[in-house]
């Protein structure tokens, strides 16, 4: 996890020690991000309001920060900070710790991601991502489970490295024949490249 993501594996443990405020997460979001999150207007295609039962819609946040903030050299520092915090929320909720829908982030993250910058940097994010993957694997191994959340791209890359029969043998399978600079639709996150020696791949290349 540390090698693939560059996330720190030392520092303070990430634990859910927060409690949902009596008035919900809306006031904290309003204070730090400047958004008045509606609780009655459904999110397009989801059928729930952007702020719903302790969850916040990541697409709603991203869309609104893009409408309100156009980052440039003369952008005020507070607007840059707001943009950075929404980016962190999208990164954590949509990539490192996504739920099965990949659209919602739990309110438990907001006291941390909207808090002190130095505190955020002192957390052991890599360890938490690995723990999250283990938890999701345990969950999806239960009878009747059909989906899993978490940073599955790490599991995919691990599988392609340790289970060679799963990995594409020729990266050219994923190039369009008339244009070597474009991928076909929905290419894999990573695939083997290089020559093979004794049945083992020499190099692993990751593409996003």
Automatic annotation (TrEMBL):
It comes from the Eukaryota. InterPro entries: AminoTfrase-like_pln_mobile, MAIN-like. Residues 1-170 form the Aminotransferase-like plant mobile domain. One of its GO terms (biological process) is meristem maintenance. Pfam families: PMD. This is Aminotransferase-like plant mobile domain-containing protein. It comes from Linum tenue.
